């Protein structure tokens, strides 16, 4: 019997490679989310420190230059924080998309792999059946070609499929 061939083997290899790439992309997206979160937290901490400085300065005199400098810094940090939060949202969306793509590819790979296993099992059963038929034929020929003349040359009941 010919060796097992699965017509979708090439597709399965390509899908598995795509799944690995999607997993890699998901990891990159996760790292981007973690980095964006760290940036947001850092900016929030800096903004909190400036707010604390303002609170400590209440009741004390501040030069106009100190006031403008602190206000400018707070404004720049506020803008940077809004930008970082937008980048975080975008990174989280990319992570979600990457996770969905990876899940879709994993499902496709699993479906094709299951089909491959089913077809291989079917091929194996057919191969075993063909091997058994060949062994039965050899056994029948040996039995029929025995030199013992006293035994009649009829087909045994088991070889004809008849039930005793």
SSE inventory with pairings:
Elements: H1 9-57, H2 64-144, H3 157-160
Helix pairs in contact: 1-2
Number of domains: 1
Please tell me the overall pLDDT: 89
Strand content: under 5%
Number of helices: 3
CATH superfamily (homologous) name? Helix Hairpins
The best one-word shape is rod-shaped
Describe what this molecule looks like in 3D.
The chain is an all-alpha fold and 164 residues long. The protein has a single domain (9-143), classed as Orthogonal Bundle (Helix Hairpins), CATH 1.10.287. It has three helices and no strands. The chain has helices spanning 9-57, 64-144, 157-160. Helix 1 runs antiparallel to helix 2. The longest helix has 81 residues, at 64-144.
Short description, anyone?
This protein is mainly alpha-helical and 164 residues long.
Features:
82% helix, rod-shaped, mainly alpha, 164 residues, Helix Hairpins
